[in-house]
Amino acid sequence: MQVTVNKDGFPTQVARTKTSNRFKNREGARSSKQSYWSKVTNVIEVWRIDDEWWRIQPIQRTYFRVLLEEGYIMTVFRNDAGKDKCRTEWFEQTH
Questions:
Q1: I need a labelling partner for 31 at 20 to 30 A (CA). Which of 6, 8, 55, 91 fits?
Q2: pTM of this prediction?
């Protein structure tokens, strides 16, 4: 997933994907994905996980529970293990 961040590494926008199914022909549905940017209006909570430090690749993540402009609350996290906070890969935490 794509996330833009401020100078402190906090999310400011999240690119969300909307999937729509359209029937093209008799063979079945054709899926279409569209991305759109949603503004983060509030960072509700931030927490960090440091686990499995003894392994070659320890788990180091920072989680952000954010409120989006549409009223949707989501949790996103980045993998902090040896990476630049502003240029890292982001994921959505689903429950």
A1: 91
A2: 0.76
